[in-house]
Specification:
Number of strands: 0
Radius of gyration: 21 Å
Helix content: 40-55%
Number of helices: 2
Distance between the termini: 73 Å
Structural class: mainly alpha
Shape: elongated
Order of helices and strands: HH
Strand content: under 5%
Largest sheet: none
């Protein structure tokens, strides 16, 4: 005899959270400038993380900063 699957109710409401827009520098002139800006923004967000993963987030943030510096040197 086949078993019937139990149906579950799914809430139709979606909660929206307020997200503040980060302060961006003036528009970059090219794609490398845009990439470095986003990498630096990501690094800043990672540095603000705390808790159990703070050390690994700080490590990744330092790597992003280093790569952003390399991209800027290539862009010169």
């Amino acid at each position: 005899m086949a078993k019937k699957k139990a149906e579950t109710a799914v809430s139709e409401t979606i909660e929206e959270t307020a997200v503040s827009e980060p302060a961006l520098t003036p528009q970059p002139r090219n794609i490398i400038g845009s990439a470095t800006e986003h990498m630096r923004l990501a690094a800043a967000m990672l540095r603000s993380k705390g808790g159990a993963h703070a050390e690994s987030c700080a490590f990744v943030a330092a790597e992003l900063e280093r790569r952003a510096d390399q991209l800027e040197k290539l862009n010169e």
